[in-house]
């Protein structure tokens, strides 16, 4: 059902000057619209997702919900988050936002089946599938106290250390802009922290396509330390980027895109019978609201025959569901509750019904 349709970058490189020009809300909105219109269709998804342990969005069959967000260039609406101060600067909700950041929906409150069981203090492997590589860094945190509505403050209290580098931020040194890459990284779980009934792992992908976070060479290597991005194609060769503004302070541009994603895990106390093992629980029940073969009145393949690539609201569901026609195939998908897909194939995101033709 999941296709290899690769998102082209939704957000082109922002030069520092364009950021400075766009610091007022209305300008940012305008910029977002212009970028959207000048980008090819079917382009706007998050820039990556947790492959192992599997992301919440994928575990419930809502790949279209996977971490989106970024620096506020998403189409609409321009949200004000309750966690003002931390999130305003980077516009990614705690567990990622749904496709196109429509409404106040997120994966924060959507617990899924446990995807992996670890032992306290263990080194764990986290694989992140990067769909749009902008350089920058990954960090991994856990919230051991709850699976429903974990707060960013909870995650911030349990930042994992990368087992290979010893730092909390793991900097992306390889790859090229626009190529999909899976980064497999190793992290140390804190000793003495367990969650027998499950808890949440959060990954943050903070990009370096608009600015580079300050860092020194021992942590991030000589390129980033000098303000350059070693991932090829994000900037021109040798370009020195501006340094990002203070993290968490929305009044200090430049800012850059940030994506988050969560997975449900379990950590047993060390010395338990599961010591040292990593197991995957049985997969969650298949989603009832979407399937690759279903379709309101016809199969996706039949519906998409002869149609241009795009998303088409299924009129028999009042466009709550939609057909996804892509180069080599077709799928049937659901919009997040309260949103619909335009039926004309002209939009690539679920929107509020009043904004759509169905
Ligand atoms: C480099 O940065 C890391 C992470 O912030 C810090 O712990 C370390 O002390 C710094 N090293 C030097 C030589 O400044
Ligand atoms: Cu981007």
TrEMBL record:
<dbReference type="Pfam" id="PF03067">
    <property type="entry name" value="LPMO_10"/>
</dbReference>
<dbReference type="GO" id="GO:0005576">
    <property type="term" value="C:extracellular region"/>
</dbReference>
<feature type="domain" description="Chitin-binding type-2">
    <location>
        <begin position="301"/>
        <end position="358"/>
    </location>
</feature>
<keyword id="KW-1133">Transmembrane helix</keyword>
<feature type="region of interest" description="Disordered">
    <location>
        <begin position="269"/>
        <end position="298"/>
    </location>
</feature>
<dbReference type="Pfam" id="PF01607">
    <property type="entry name" value="CBM_14"/>
</dbReference>
<protein>
    <recommendedName>
        <fullName>Chitin-binding type-2 domain-containing protein</fullName>
    </recommendedName>
</protein>
<dbReference type="GO" id="GO:0008061">
    <property type="term" value="F:chitin binding"/>
</dbReference>
<keyword id="KW-0472">Membrane</keyword>
<dbReference type="InterPro" id="IPR004302">
    <property type="entry name" value="Cellulose/chitin-bd_N"/>
</dbReference>
<keyword id="KW-0812">Transmembrane</keyword>
<dbReference type="InterPro" id="IPR002557">
    <property type="entry name" value="Chitin-bd_dom"/>
</dbReference>
<feature type="compositionally biased region" description="Low complexity">
    <location>
        <begin position="270"/>
        <end position="281"/>
    </location>
</feature>
<dbReference type="InterPro" id="IPR036508">
    <property type="entry name" value="Chitin-bd_dom_sf"/>
</dbReference>
<feature type="transmembrane region" description="Helical">
    <location>
        <begin position="28"/>
        <end position="50"/>
    </location>
</feature>
């Amino acid at each position: 059902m999941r296709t290899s349709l690769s998102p082209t970058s939704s957000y082109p490189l922002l030069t520092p000057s364009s950021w400075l020009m766009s610091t007022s809300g209305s300008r940012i909105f305008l910029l977002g619209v212009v970028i959207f219109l000048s980008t090819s269709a079917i382009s706007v998804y998050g820039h990556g997702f947790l492959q192992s342990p599997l992301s919440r969005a994928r575990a419930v069959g809502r790949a279209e919900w996977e971490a989106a967000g970024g620096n506020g260039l998403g189409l609409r609406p321009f949200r004000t988050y309750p966690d003002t101060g931390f999130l305003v600067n980077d516009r990614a909700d705690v567990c990622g936002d749904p496709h196109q950041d429509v409404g106040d929906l997120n994966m924060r409150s959507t617990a899924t089946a446990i995807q992996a069981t670890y032992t306290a203090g263990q080194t764990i492997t986290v694989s992140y599938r990067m769909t749009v590589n902008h350089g920058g860094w990954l960090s991994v945190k856990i919230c051991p106290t709850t699976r429903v509505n974990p707060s960013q403050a909870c995650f911030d209290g349990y930042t994992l250390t990368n087992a290979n580098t010893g730092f909390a931020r793991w900097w992306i040194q390889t790859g090229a802009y626009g190529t999909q890459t899976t980064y497999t990284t190793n992290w140390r779980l804190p000793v003495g922290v367990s969650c027998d009934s499950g808890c949440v792992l959060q990954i943050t992908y903070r990009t370096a396509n608009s600015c580079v976070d300050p860092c020194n060479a021992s942590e991030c290597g000589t390129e980033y330390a000098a303000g350059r991005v070693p991932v090829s194609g994000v900037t021109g060769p040798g370009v020195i980027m501006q340094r990002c503004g203070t993290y968490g302070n929305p009044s200090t541009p430049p800012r850059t895109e940030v994506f988050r994603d969560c997975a449900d895990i379990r950590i047993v106390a060390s010395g338990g019978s599961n010591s040292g093992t990593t197991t995957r629980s049985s997969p969650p029940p298949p989603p009832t609201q979407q399937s690759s073969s279903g379709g309101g009145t016809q199969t996706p393949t039949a519906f998409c025959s002869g149609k241009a690539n795009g998303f088409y609201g299924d009129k028999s569901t009042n466009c709550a569901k939609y057909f996804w026609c892509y180069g080599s195939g077709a799928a049937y998908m659901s919009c997040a509750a309260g949103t619909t897909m335009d039926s004309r194939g002209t939009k690539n995101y679920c929107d509020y019904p009043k904004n759509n033709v169905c």
